[in-house]
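Exercise 7.
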Amino acid sequence: MAEHDWLSERFTEHQDRLRALAYRMLRSPGDAEDAVQEAWLRVSRADTDQVENPGGWLTTVVARVCLNMLEARQARREEPAGALPPEPAAPHPSGPVDPEDDALLADSVGVALMVVLDTLTPAERLAFVLHDMFAVSFGEIGAIIDRSPAAARQLASRARRRVQGAASASDAARSRKREVVAAFLAASRDGDFAGLLSVLDSDAVLVADPAAVRMGATAEARGADAVAAVFAGRAEAARLALVDGVPAAVWAHRGRPQVVFGFTITDGKITGIALQADPDRLRDLDIVFLGTGDQEPDGPGKGA
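Solution. The predicted structure, written as tokens, is:
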């Protein structure tokens, strides 16, 4: 009983870190929780007499569980029945994470990193995450994946090059998109109809979800002229923001986001604008405002 109590205390002590590791490996809060629970089942049945470093041991167990889950996920994707849909974007798990450890998961990388992680082999993903984000040695990583430390180093290096390349490409694309969104908002605030037309594709489409429509938004508009007419002089309260790491606009009231303006941009032109106001959906979004702006006191009508 004393040994079980000791093990339970050590597991609780490291649980936040273990959950963070599982999330960064699996990119799904549900799968991360399953991995941590499976790890607990394994360690609770293990002989702990020879365990000198509980944190390192628990990290190894969780990493192996995640590796098995990634390999199973990859196998399912290769079945003739068809590929699984991509994992949905999700917020970081609870628990403290060193900003330096998490730098490559910052907004400046965002969606691109998630896409790249999903293209890495399970071994590459494990080597990169464990070493670059959790400072696990290549010797320990090699033992987990049955490779030499040099092979583990090579796997992490290969993964890092792909992630950094995606980050650079993502930064460039995001910068261009941010400029287009900022130009759209400026033209909208100034009532600059010609300016709006200059950033709208001729076949641009505006759609709003039912919650936004109830707040006064236009349900749908098609064509650059129609979309420009909706927004000309009517976006004083919308502010430039990153929404799940992607440039967008947000109308907030008393500091709380009320409507998110999502933009689809192709070849430097806005081809689609989607207004979202469903509270349940907004709660799941990671929103970072990029500049200051006046708050609309009475609703999004002027911005939608």
